[in-house]
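Researcher: Here's a chain I'd like modeled. Treat it as a single chain, no partners, no ligands.
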Amino acid sequence: MNLSQHQYHFNGTVMASNKKRNYDDNYLDFGFTSITDKGVVKPQCVICHKILTAESLRPSKLRLHLETKHPQHVGKDRSFFSRQELNMKRQRLDASGSFHQQNAAVVEASFLVALEIAKKKKPHTIGEELILPCAKTMVKLVLGEKSAEKLNAISLSNNTVQRRISQISDDIREQVIQEIKRAGLFSIQLDESTDVQSCSQLLAFVRYVHDEDLKEEFLFCEPLEQSTKGEDVMQKLTEFFESEGLDWGNLCGICTDGAPAMLGSQSGFVTRVIQKHQMLSSSLHDPQRLCQDMDAAHETLLFHTAVRWLSKGNVVQRVFELREEISLFLRIQNKQDLLSAWSADSFEIRLAYLVDIFRQLNTLNLELQGKGSLIIDFVDKIKAFIRKMENWRRKVGMGNLAMLETVSEIVEKCDAATQNLITQHLEALEGEFKRYFPDIQSLTSRLVRAPFTAAVTCIPDDNDDGQTELLTLQEDSGAKMKFETESLTVFWSSMAASYPNLCDLAFRHLLPFSSTYSCEAAFSQLLHIKTKYRNRLEVKHDLRCALSETKPRIKKLVDNLQHHPSH
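Model: Modeled as a single isolated chain. Structure tokens:
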């Protein structure tokens, strides 16, 4: 609307300075409403909320404020300013034009409680049903009735808590995406599993450089509605990349489990990703994690099931410890075929050997788990275990069974048959390890570990900038001191600004995940959040709040809301 089209009539062309001015509804066309301060009517801008003096209640001054302070809104129709006025009134401005601090604190308290509910993986109803009543009781007893009544303004209803958690989750996701984009290179780990409703959930974690170190963060949790094929996983990841503006070219590693949907040579997920973008692919199978030691007495057998965290090693050990009871049970049940096999001369030795070898595998398994594990460390541990097997095979060939504690308990002397049995299995197991975990060490990985002694030829000749930076780095005394005192990840992250090409090579070996440990651990958390009593919950927001290390910007969220307890 053209502001010049409006004419405003007053009694007389010149108004006395002491004459009381009144607000005119037409002033809203300039973006001003009225507010009464100590009995005096003053104009208040509905855009910036600034309160002018009573003398400014004239069209020329109101128009001047709009044109100088908010030129982008000049010419807006009356409905626009009406909406701004309505929003401002909802915000409950006081006479000075600032937000009520008490109301802001109420909203902030609502956010903080909702965040704790998500972190502790509790039902959303706990805020209104337990936390708020308990808080009011404590405040009433300690501070009095009036102070307790103030807590009534904090909204912790089921819907409010759910909304707050969603807003916090969105803020954390926004921060993580921004950090990934600033970092450049990043890697991800993916895994899928089923929740309490038997719905497939796809989880992803990301690793990137942030604040001069590597940072691991929860990336997303999305349901796989149709199936769990490689194409479905690829579609979900592609949709996420496109919606968040992530560059496939910066993805330097993917870690998955060994499922056919992930590793299929024709249509597996990793195959599809490599077709889309050539990269270092760390598709390493993640062995089952050793469950915690069992405190229960040996009253029952452990049955091996598909439960994720059940350790085969503990199952075999329990069977061995109850071998006499099992034999008696088979005899009572008249299971002659099983009893005959169970009572065979070599069966007890075979079972004892399995107990020992699974114990060693479980120990290795534990060493490979945990956040922050790197591929270069992973390969070192696998190589060390292969050498241990070579040494065990050599000792068994000499009749020494000291490293096999359980076998040593039942065999006084290692005969030829026992030696042959164990050495054949160790040789086969050693071959499987070498096949399944190929030697992925390279000249570049040696550069990552020992940059100050590495030969310049460890970098391809076509990477002249990288070779130049390596030679410069090797003469950098400050960098040498940092290398001696900091971890590999911190050292290379701190060198990124000075030696970008060299660090690019290093990050391509440091960033890829070595296992899907984070995803496996997250699935356990998911089962705590989405129970049979909360089976309709959209779990992604609660899971992000529970797992993320990025702190939400609560103050920003409060400022973005209209400060009203019902919001």
